[in-house]
Amino acid sequence: MTPEEALRSHRWCKLIVGASYHHVPAIRNLALVYGLAGVSCLDVAADPAIVRAALAGLDVAQRWGMPHRPWLMVSLNDGEDPHFRKAVFEGDRCPPDCAQPCRPVCPTQAIGWLQNGTGEWLGVTADLCYGCGRCLTVCPPQRIETVPQTYDPLALWRGPLGSEIQAIEIHTQPDRETAFAECWARLAPVIPQLRAVSVSFPDLPDLESALRARLAAMHPFPEHLIWQVDGRPMSGDIGRGTSHAAAKLGTRVLAMGLPGFVQLAGGTNDRTPQDLAAAPALAGAAFGGYGRTLVADLLARGGDHLETDAEAFTAAIARAKQLVTAVQGGTPPSPPQICYPA
Description:
Strand 10, helix 8 (about 245-255) and strand 11 (about 260-265) form a beta-alpha-beta unit. The protein starts with a helix and ends in a 14-residue tail after the last helix. The chain has 2 domains: about 5-80 and about 165-330, Aldolase class I (TIM Barrel, Alpha-Beta Barrel); about 85-150, Alpha-Beta Plaits. The protein has helices at about 5-10, 25-35, 50-65, 100-105, 135-140, 175-185, 205-215, 245-255, 270-280, 290-300, 310-330, and strands spanning about 10-20, 40-45, 70-75, 85-90, 110-115, 120-125, 145-150, 165-170, 195-200, 225-230, 260-265, 285. The longest helix is centred in the C-terminal third of the chain and has 19 residues, at about 310-330. Helix content is about 35%, strand content about 20%. By secondary structure, it is α/β, with parallel strands linked by helices.
């Protein structure tokens, strides 16, 4: 099923790799695994190194018989946004008797002991942090801060990578109508080249008016418009109940009758296919923390090139396919035949 077919038939399944996630080996392997699983779209940071990593994974997936090539989407923002930040702190300022509750709550194990030639200290591995903020709330002395991640909206299109990108996502927040319009205007030269533009938003005050104000700024209008409802941001790996917030927000947006497709995100997990079945007018769902966590242990086993570990590779594809097929319906595609020399 091509991405366009999935979107138009309301069986769209997107993997959110992360707007601030920069771990190149994991991104390459996530693209490989979910590409082979038949995902509709991969959503990555608007960073040239990250785009190249995703493309590398998709190229390998193509050689393994990927059923179709998913659209590659890059995420941008119209201002300060929790998806575009990284945690930072100075480990030498931590109390010596601190229980370090920040470490177990980090979903990517980004917080740990770092080393250089002069010593060891507690800190954040920036490439692994995607800004979920769970460490912020549990730090006893409240020493953890965040730094924003910023991207030039058009930088990728000044070079050859722009032709490899099929979609953009714009993250917006309350009271950003003017900022959104300015962001759209900057992107106007590339929007006609894209297959889709997604607008990601939480439950904004006076939601319908806020969305219609953004709709009015969409010149030129994209080939496909996706409204991504961010029910409970970056929480799908916490528990099954988080999917409910996204489904509830999605049904509200559907009732507004806006042009385009409505897609769930923010808290999506293995319960989400049931929520989609209960509201067939929803176009599908995007999975972030849950989709990554589903295969994280296997990616860790496989190293930089997951396909060199036949057992982990096969198991990761099977898990990813189970999720994608739950959204798209039907029988999971056959796994690739993996044969290695003894």
